[in-house]
Amino acid sequence: MARGDQHRGQLKRVRLGSLNLFNTTDDEHVQEFNVTHIFRHPNYTQPVLYNDIALVMLDRSVEITEYVRPACLATDAYAPNTNLIATGWGRTQYLNPRSETLMKVSLDLFSIALCKQAYVSVPTRQLPNGISEDLQICAGDANKEKDACQGDSGGPLQIVDQYNPALYYIIGITSFGRSCGTTSNPGVYTRVSHYVGWIEEIVWPNEK
């Protein structure tokens, strides 16, 4: 179900500005940081699949460059029906090796009704209330084998601003799915808009 790598241990470092995990040719633009603290959502409790979100604190400020830029957080629960973009270094197919190069895929929004139907057989210990429209977004493709996969967990589900193509909004975080790339079987993403208040309390605690 989960789309992460469960055996790599605690997150210790963050690397920004790199497209290839195993090649150093783009290191001129890379920034590396130590992780000083991880803020897991207080309501996340395994094996339940809700509230699958965390923040990491870095040991210094990020330098904004042509290769390292911020994305906005979606504050509106609304999401467009098409042109959602998922990115990551996960597997390109189920049980395939992980990709060395950052990949992206364009996905469509699935209704909560269709998503609930796709995950109706998931044990109640993981989804006691089924798919939650408040907490989760479902995205995939009804006709093509397009999806996130193992190794993509924690990556963004984003949209491009319609007025400024250089500006991205993060609407979801890759969370879990069933297999990979099966048509009409969407992946599930944490709905970022639901957690903006919690994020603000962590990142800007003195500004309220």
UniProtKB/TrEMBL annotation:
Keywords, sorted A to Z: Disulfide bond, Hydrolase, Protease, Secreted, Serine protease
Organism: Ignelater luminosus (Cucubano)
Compartments it resides in: Secreted
A GO term from the CC aspect: extracellular space
Gene Ontology BP, a term: proteolysis
InterPro entries noted in UniProt: Peptidase_S1_PA, Peptidase_S1_PA_chymotrypsin, Peptidase_S1A, Serine_Proteases_S1, Trypsin_dom, TRYPSIN_SER
Pfam short name (any one): Trypsin
Record family assignment: Belongs to the peptidase S1 family. CLIP subfamily.
Residue intervals of the Peptidase S1 domain: 1-204
Main subcellular localisation: secreted
Protein name: Peptidase S1 domain-containing protein
GO MF entry, a single one: serine-type endopeptidase activity
